[in-house]
Amino acid sequence: MTANEPAVGRLERGVPLAPFTTFGLGGSAAFWADEVSADDLPAVASAIVGATGAPPLILGDGSNLLVADGAIARGVIRLGGRGLTFGPSWGSAADVIVDAGTPWDHFVAQTVEAGLQGVECLSGIPGRVGAAPIQNIGAYGQEVSDTVVAVEGLDLRSGDMVSLAASECAFGYRTSRFKLGDGTFVVTRVHFRLHTEAPPTVTYRDVAQALLAVREPTLPMVRDCVLAIRRQKSMVVDASDPNHRSAGSFFTNPVVSVGHADALAAEHGATFPRYASASGVKLSAAWLIEHAGITRGFVLGPARVSTRHTLALTAASPDCRSHDIVRLAALIRRAVRRRFDITLEPEPIFVGYDQPAATVLDEAEESLQNG
Ligand SMILES: Cc1cc2nc3c(=O)[nH]c(=O)nc-3n(C[C@H](O)[C@H](O)[C@H](O)COP(=O)(O)OP(=O)(O)OC[C@H]3O[C@@H](n4cnc5c(N)ncnc54)[C@H](O)[C@@H]3O)c2cc1C
């Protein structure tokens, strides 16, 4: 018996991934292991590498994935650990260490209840804590990198458990070393530093407007306000919402040079939305899409732009396939490029495609042209 055999025995074969994604789309994985503990992770991961020749896909709640139709030649692992450890607080800081399998919003709710500031604006984001650093989740004026101190996990190349300081994670706007990397780092725990005495963050326009009449908003008020705004935009997972089969925003906000932004502002006037960012000027992808002629509710076959949020693409009918989402994304991307000379980048991770996401969309654009 080899060291891997017990782990291989735990792997299920041909498990459909669609039910484990918020799009509800995608084919079956070659191998599947659920509720894998941090202790079992090295053996299960190495069994998958042995069986497929590739690192496993670590799945959270599948809320930032577009899984290809057809068989996926990958092994998939979902982690089991769900636990929060509140560390000692000193001065105005308090540490919380959270297992990767913990639902993200459960963590946020617990911290708000404990009076800890730092993630209240990230209320209602679907998914698990282990995925939060992958694309440096952000919303309503906060990013998770504002409060992450360290990310712990298994380096599949060396087989070592390591702890990466936030400064080593290359966090940026919806990106990190993990998203840019080759998928060989499995996050097992995230270490946060929150604030015991700070007021909630009320910088985002919609939140500030909703709380205008409140002199000193509390953390629960900000959380409730963010959740209410998200519900209005179909940006929480709610199976009764007709827009619910999505991965949230499908495109990131593009960052362009100051010169490019100035030229667009000169053409489109004072209302052209632009925001200073570390690497240039951030534009609103939703505004660009709408001004390229694609509005909420736009339909292409069984795929549809959300009726409540221009950036969310949805599987609008039961016969929708990932292929249909790719076609709609390609059509939107082409419309924005033709109108503004800007190429939108997809935010979700494409799984099971032979090519990088940008190439998948390029090819889909070509087939739209030929079709
Ligand atoms: C309705 C809706 C609203 C959303 N709103 C927002 C928003 O406001 N802001 C925002 O930033 N995002 C948003 N998202 C996107 C998504 O919720 C986040 O990216 C979330 O962090 C994904 O978590 P998940 O557990 O579902 O990860 P998955 O979708 O399962 O995985 C995403 C990526 O992370 C990797 N991964 C997951 N867990 C681990 C781990 N433990 N170790 C290593 N890699 C791992 C996966 O391999 C994959 O590459 C939204 C999505 C939806 C459906």
Provide a descriptive summary of the structure in words:
- The protein folds into 3 domains: 5-79, Uridine Diphospho-n-acetylenolpyruvylglucosamine Reductase, domain 2; 84-232, Uridine Diphospho-n-acetylenolpyruvylglucosamine Reductase, domain 3; 255-370, Alpha-Beta Complex (Uridine Diphospho-n-acetylenolpyruvylglucosamine Reductase, domain 1), CATH 3.90.78.10.
- It has 10 helices and 19 strands.
- The chain has helices at residues 5-10, 41-52, 104-113, 177-180, 205-210, 219-232, 258-268, 285-291, 322-340, 357-370; strands spanning 12-16, 28-36, 57-59, 65-67, 72-79, 84-90, 93-99, 138-139, 142-143, 148-155, 160-165, 185-195, 255-256, 274-277, 280-283, 299-300, 303-305, 313-315, 349-351.
- A hairpin with a 2-residue loop joins strand 6 and strand 7 (93-99).
- Helix 9 (322-340) crosses helix 10 (357-370).
- The structure holds flavin-adenine dinucleotide.
- The site of flavin-adenine dinucleotide has 32 residues, from strand 3, strand 8 and strand 12.
Quick take:
The chain has 371 residues and is α+β, with helices and mostly antiparallel strands. Helices cover 28% and strands 25% of the residues. It has 10 helices and 19 strands.
Structural Rg: 21 Å
Name every ligand kind in the structure.
Answer: flavin-adenine dinucleotide
List the secondary-structure elements in sequence, H or E. HEEHEEEEEHEEEEHEHHEHEEHEEEHEH
Order of neighbouring strands in the sheet with most strands: 6-7-12-10-11
Q: What value does the average pLDDT take?
A: 94
Report the principal-axis shape.
globular
Q: CA-to-CA gap between the ends?
A: 55 Å
Largest sheet: 5 strands, antiparallel
Q: Tell me the number of strands.
A: 19
Which CATH architecture of the largest domain? 2-Layer Sandwich
Continuous helix count = 10
CATH class of the largest domain, anyone? Alpha Beta
CATH topology (level 3) name of the largest domain: Uridine Diphospho-n-acetylenolpyruvylglucosamine Reductase, domain 3
Structural class: alpha+beta
**Strand content of the residues, in percent?**
15-25%
The low-confidence parts are 1-6
Question: What share of the residues lie within helices?
Answer: 25-40%
The number of distinct structural domains comes to: 3
